[in-house]
Amino acid sequence: MMLAEILQLKHEAVDVNLMAGEHLTPEYLEKNPLHTIPFLEDGDFYVTDSHAINTYLASKYGGAQSEKLYPTDFKVRATVDSRLFFDVSVVSPASSAITVALFNGEITSPTKQQTEKLNFAYEVLDKYLQKTKFAAADHLTVADISLAASISSASLLVPIDQKYTKLTAWLNTIQQEDWYKKKNVPGLEVYKAFVSSKLK
Predict the structure, then answer these.
(1) Which residues pair with 39 in a beta bridge?
(2) What span, in angstroms and rounded, lies between the C-alpha atoms of 187 and 174?
(3) Which CATH number fits domain 68-198: 3.40.1080.10, 1.20.1050.10, 3.30.230.10, 3.40.190.10?
(4) pTM score, two decimals?
(5) Average pLDDT of each block of 10 consecutive residues along the chain (200 residues)?
(6) Where would I find the GST N-terminal domain in this sequence (predicted)?
(7) CB count, 10 Å around CB of 196?
């Protein structure tokens, strides 16, 4: 949704009630066997996973912004992709593990191991940001959009140590953007309320 806001894409956002099992209906499963959200339907073409959705939207609808958001230069694109995979394989799993454990009542605060995993993610991203202004380049790319969502949520579980100065500065920059305020903050506030109700 943040990228759609950046690109000013006209689209229809459809709420899917997971608790009511709307992601498990035959109609939904026909289009998305993974029964996950977010899920993009563009005509008769379907895309799952927010990272894949963002690269698709940037490539197809990015127009003049496409080259910066998802560059065609092989090395720069590989760097963007590596940051997206870093989000998928390191940041998100570390954060999700804590969220699920909180939801299931297994913990009331992150364990030492869970905290270490998120701090490792912060450390790595901080090192990436020592080389470039943004996560993959000196300008905003789809990697920043994905990581902004993940890191902002993760920081509610394990606060970012101020020693990660580059990471802190990057997140502060992202948080000033209108597209972040409009499309990420509302959902983040809901998540914050959930976390606050579970953490002790």
Answers:
(1) 48
(2) 16
(3) 1.20.1050.10
(4) 0.92
(5) 94 83 88 88 95 97 96 98 99 98 96 98 99 98 98 98 98 98 96 94
(6) 1-65
(7) 9
